[in-house]
User: What shape does this take?
Amino acid sequence: MRYLISIFVLILAACSSTPEKVYYQLPVKSPATQSAVVMGQQNQIWLQRIMLADVLTSNGITYQTSDVSYNNANSHLWASPLEQQLGQSMVSELSSALPGRLVSLQPLQNSPDTLDITLTSFNGRYDGKVLVQGFWTLSRGKEIIRRNFDIQLEQKEDGYPELVRTLADGWQQVASEIAKEANKS
Assistant: This one.
């Protein structure tokens, strides 16, 4: 009888335990050190804002479970707000790709180029794809350039750590596209 009660207590304890929360941060390149940056108007980019679709604003990592439904994880969370991580990562990527330009999350002087990014998808999907979708707008004085992006990558392994790494790879591709356009000026 004692044996059965002990087993019952252990089963109850196992069922009542809450899952451990795990926090994730997008990997960010170390910024290249620059000895001097010319501060002319053509050499500054201000990342003015990153807008997220409502489903992405949760602190849980978003996963698309069917063609019409999404789930925000309760135990797999972003270590800091997603838009903050995306902004820091984008500034790091663009600074590396555009060494002669000052890229900043803070407002700059001298009428800098401004960059706005809207993300409609930044999530894993039920079929093993990882989606990074949306559009960006680069304003240079009177010129405005708007480009859509639709990046779909295969997640090579199961699990949230691999999902975060694959999302970071997709975000890096967006940064490369923006850097190519910024280099045309």
In short: The two ends are 81 Å apart (CA to CA).
